[in-house]
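agent: user wants the full assembly modeled, not chains individually. Plan: 1) parse entity lines 2) check alphabet per entity 3) run joint structure prediction 4) return tokens. Steps 1-2 passed, two entities, 471 residues total. Proceeding.
--- entities ---
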Amino acid sequence: MRLRNVRTGWLMTLRELGRSRIALILCFVVPSVFYAVVFLITTQRAIAFKLASVSEEALVSVSQRNEGLVFIGLAAVGVLTSFLALHLTQKHPEVNRRLILCGYGTTELLASKFLALVVMIALIGCYVGAITPLFFRPRRFLLVLAGFMAAGYVYGSYGLLVGALVKRELEGILFIVLLANIDIGWLQNPIYYAEAQNKALIRHLPAYFPSQLSMVAAFTDKSVLNPALGSLVYGTVLLAAALVIYSRRMKLWK
Amino acid sequence: MDGLAAVTKEPGNVLEVRGAAKSFGRRTVFRGVSLDLGPGEVVGITGENGAGKTTLLRIVVGLLPPDEGSVAVRGRLGYCPQDMAVFDTLTVRENFAFFAAAYGLGGSGRGGPWAGEMARLLAYFHFPQYEAAVVSTLSGGTRQKLNFCLSVLHGPDLLILDEPYSGFDWETYLHFWDFAAGFKKRGRSILVVSHFVYDRTPFDRVYKLGRGGLACA
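--- prediction returned ---
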């Protein structure tokens, strides 16, 4: 892998993203609107739930609003990065193939897209993290931020995988909606899974570790090592799968 | 496109296609296509819509595998696809920089070794004023010029062109053939696919592609 090619591809991908100004603005408007809606519709009434990754059976009691804000922050970062990643792998397939014909490495190309995605994850994650203290003060802010980044990493990798798997935009969008809505948009909310009958299913979904990381960090002083490592492993597996499938799709016959 | 380069059986050939066949499902596009191209030759392939001209070129450059037959290329290959394969949200210069990196001509910096060749191509095809313009703002003809120029940036030995002048105005069409003549003079070869061959003068040979293969046209 030639690092100079990765750098060139990364810069070009960032320039392309930078020129999609309305999409960029929406990346910051969407979490702001999500937060505002949660702030307006939730109350400060205390709710109690169990955190799946905390071994003790102790109930965590926090305000409904604060729990909702962390949850919606995760959902915003996950969904946005997933769609951005889909866009990065699906756009310009013929031009990317032409670049590969001309000598670009498939790994170089995907690495440059991934690095551009990392920049976007950092920007969106930091923005969501930065507006969170405007509404409430999490116990361990930096780890909550790490949870947002982890949601971006796992769901960004999922978006890359979907983009590598399916050619058409609509199919890609539906694949993301299918998982993101049910996972990061619903089941990972502790209010739902605390009383769920089949928690094993929820624990195997992509947003489980990132959401546990943020929730545990926001409302307890317990260790976040397992959710942090779990996020890293889950995201890396998805990323590796995306690389394998993308390479097969872009492969030349000789 | 060094990855595509293979050794031709005849040392004098830059391209050898032997018995290539391609079908999509039950539909046979062509079979028994054989073609040799020597240094400094300009060869045209024409044919009806759906005859498989683009498919043949995609096989030659390595984008599609043939069902039967073989393809061998000697030297560096340049390929200009029929559909505009350029980044429409990047500027003309950024497109050059991206492809220069692919060809191994240097990074995206302003003083890259490819920048001189880019300036020469922009001046030759009369669009230096668009160097900093985003491609999506350009006319179809100017985009086609860019599409073509990206295929010759690295000075290929063999140029594979799929409907290269379909969006050109008359003046650019003439410029294109001037460029091709200079290319040929330097011992480099061109394979052109087009619906229409208006003027046979620039070609050494013209073939018509049909189901049975290539026939002299």
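agent: reporting back. Residues 3-250 of chain A form one domain. Chain A has one domain: 3-250.
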